[in-house]
């Protein structure tokens, strides 16, 4: 529930050792980033949503109420994708939330759909994840200090990489 930029600051200040997240190309950071996978952006919606019938989608097929997250809570790479859809929508079809958890809850309730990287181990079983084929994939990985020589952190990095490769 901590905003993504705050997580990065916590690593820089040695408050936590690592954080999972998407690569943020625009932000300058001194942290080490290890990509775990490249995730397609998916339309996340309830099984009853009209878009749920498709196996894949394109931007042009995205219709209905759109749920976007505050840029204070998500990485720039995700917000850039969400914003590219948001700006072309009528105001009455836009729903803005303060967190990914709120966006997922609204999608699950059938209020609309959101766009988010599809990382299979992080999926919510009550939702559909439909790849949007003409949106760029987003790098998902782990951030930590450059001197990631702590034995537990090294082991964590090895295990998380193996886990993601086995799942995806």
Report on this model:
The chain has 168 residues and is α+β, with helices and mostly antiparallel strands. It has helices at 4-12, 76-86, 100-108, 151-167, and strands at residues 18-22, 32-39, 41-45, 66-69, 94-97, 114-117, 128-131, 138-144. The strands form three sheets. It has a three-stranded antiparallel beta sheet with strand order 1-8-2, with helices on both faces. The chain has a three-stranded antiparallel beta sheet with strand order 6-3-7. Helix 2 links the parallel strand 4 and strand 5 (94-97). The relative contact order is 0.27.
Q: What is the strand and helix layout of this fold?
A:
Blueprint: H1 4-12, E1 18-22, E2 32-39, E3 41-45, E4 66-69, H2 76-86, E5 94-97, H3 100-108, E6 114-117, E7 128-131, E8 138-144, H4 151-167
Parallel strand pairs: 4-5
Antiparallel strand pairs: 1-8, 2-8, 3-6, 3-7
Helix content: 25-40%
Mean pLDDT across all residues, rounded? 90
Number of DSSP helical runs: 4
N-to-C order of helices and strands: HEEEEHEHEEEH
By helix and strand content, what is the structural category? Answer: alpha+beta
- Strand fraction equals 15-25%
Q: Main sheet?
A: 3 strands, antiparallel
> Strand arrangement, largest sheet?
1-8-2
């Amino acid at each position: 529930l901590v905003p993504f930029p705050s997580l990065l600051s916590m690593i820089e200040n040695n408050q936590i050792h690592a954080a999972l997240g998407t690569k943020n190309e625009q932000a300058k950071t001194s942290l080490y980033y290890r990509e775990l996978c490249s995730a397609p952006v998916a339309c996340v919606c309830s099984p009853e949503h009209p878009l749920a019938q498709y196996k894949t989608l394109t931007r042009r097929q995205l219709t209905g109420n759109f749920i976007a997250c505050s840029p204070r809570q998500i990485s720039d790479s995700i917000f850039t994708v969400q914003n590219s859809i948001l700006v072309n929508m009528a105001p009455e079809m836009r729903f803005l939330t303060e967190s990914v958890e709120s966006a997922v809850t609204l999608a699950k309730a059938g209020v609309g759909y959101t766009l988010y990287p599809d990382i299979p181990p992080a999926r919510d079983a009550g939702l559909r994840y439909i790849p949007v084929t003409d949106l760029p994939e987003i790098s998902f990985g782990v951030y930590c200090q450059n001197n990631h020589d702590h034995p537990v952190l090294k082991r964590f990095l090895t295990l998380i990489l193996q886990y993601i490769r086995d799942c995806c």
